[in-house]
Amino acid sequence: MPEIHRKKIYNPESLESVNERKIFGGNPTSMFDLNKIKYQWAYDLWKTMLANTWFPEEVNMNADTRDYNGGLTPQEKLGYDRALAQLIFMDSLQTNNLIDNVNPYMTSPEINLVLVRQAYEEALHSQSYAVMVESISANTDEIYDMWRVDMQLRHKNDYIANVYEELAKNPTEHNLVKAMFANQILEGIYFYSGFCFFYTLARSGKMLGSAQMIRFIQRDEVTHLYLFQSMINSVRKDRADLFTPALEEEVIEMFRKAVEIESAWGEYITQGQILGLTSEIITQYIQYLADERLSKVRLPKLYNVSHPIKWVDSFASFNDQKTNFFEAKVTNYAKGSVNFDDF
Ligand SMILES: [Fe+2]
Ligand SMILES: [Fe+2]
């Protein structure tokens, strides 16, 4: 399979015109001449991401400290720790994956621009988790070590990291496109499913600060999901030859496996003990997410199920928080509110 190469970071010999730009496999000068744009969606996305700027310290976590140490059941506490440990792993992985693994092969400056911003946001999410862990737990190491000692989490993380590692070990066009789908799955299934746990707790009046933090994080993840879906669709246009039936079969298998793994994980963190989140609901929600993501990249839906917990969508949206339900200063961030329903 054709190999791909890291782009040069300084390339004065290149005479590549804007129309010749490619998502990958191009020959860029590596100058950020942003007066000439080929992938306009990427530059528009950059501006949206800038408008979404927020800071984790601004979320008030005082009530969560009280809830965690008095209001939560032992099962809710354990679920909270596990859900958080999973998010900590994914944002850590994603920061490095974007910068060290994906971006070096991307040969369009407007794509490099958004990937760098995305990596910054993933790093910011890691900081958010530090704020959350610090405010709820006396023993912060316990949550931070979970990725290593909790075998269920380890198994899930091994699978997620594996596709990224395939690209690192064997950088081919095929593996790069597969890694793009892996990013779409991470941003659009694993994260969404993890967030759902926090919204469910908040819906019963618990851990409202955490839910607010997650809402800010999710607003970022929506743009990340859009980025990878758009990249996949742009590559499909430029390089239709790569989208062979064999590749599509592999991708569909990745989606199936992701649904299986995430459903098992959802069961593990809720243990049937979280009000409103049965195993059936969790599985159906994950299947619904998988179908949505597949259709956005023009692949057939696999499950054809309805959204079983529609309240999550309005709960997660700033646009729907007209009553300022949470105490944080939602309205201050209205400048970043863009309707992502189409994303
Ligand atoms: Fe993130
Ligand atoms: Fe992300």
Shape annotation? globular
Question: Order of SSEs, N→C?
Answer: HHHHHHHHHHH
Number of strands: 0
Low-pLDDT regions: 322-343
Helical residues, percent? 55-70%
Biggest β-sheet: count, sense, barrel?
none
CA radius of gyration is 20 Å
What small molecules are bound in this structure?
fe (ii) ion
- Average pLDDT over all residues: 91
First-residue to last-residue Cα separation: 32 Å
Quick tags:
single chain, 343 residues, mainly alpha, 64% helix, disordered C terminus, binds fe (ii) ion
Note down, in words, how this protein is organized.
This protein has 343 residues and is mainly α. The protein has helices spanning 40-51, 62-71, 74-102, 109-136, 140-149, 151-169, 173-203, 208-238, 245-270, 279-296, 311-316. α3 (74-102) crosses α5 (140-149) and α3 runs parallel beside α6. The radius of gyration is 20 Å and the shape is globular. The structure holds fe (ii) ion (2 copies). One fe (ii) ion (FE2) binds next to α3, α4 and α8.
